[in-house]
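Problem 12. The chain below contains 125 residues. Write out its predicted structure in token notation.
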Amino acid sequence: QVQLVESGGGLAQAGGSLRLSCAASGRTFSTYLMGWFRQAPGKEREFVAAISRRSGGSTYYADSVKGRFTISRDNAKMSVYLQMNSLKPEDTAVYYCAGDRYSNNYDRISSYDYWGQGTQVTVSS
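Solution.
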């Protein structure tokens, strides 16, 4: 099994940037599809971004963050990252890192086997 721990959340102004990190434990990290989800108060948890298992593989983004956020992974460091640029107040949410061992349905919550504790991102106008 794998444990995931997010970090890097905090306060930012609109137009600013934050970089989220997700550190994984376990020896099978490279076999996991990794994704980022977020949940704002009173709203459903939603897909943000995902990256395929192979180094240099495909990336996927929600329309709301396309062109602003970049997901990456470093299997040697057992980490996945989310670079968030041009932040908007509507990006305010708790961001969760998730790992998917068996499924390829990258945008579905039910597909992911492991979840981090979440890190708060707050964007002020």
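Discussion. The chain has a mean pLDDT of 94. Students who got a different answer should revisit the alignment rule from Section 12.3.
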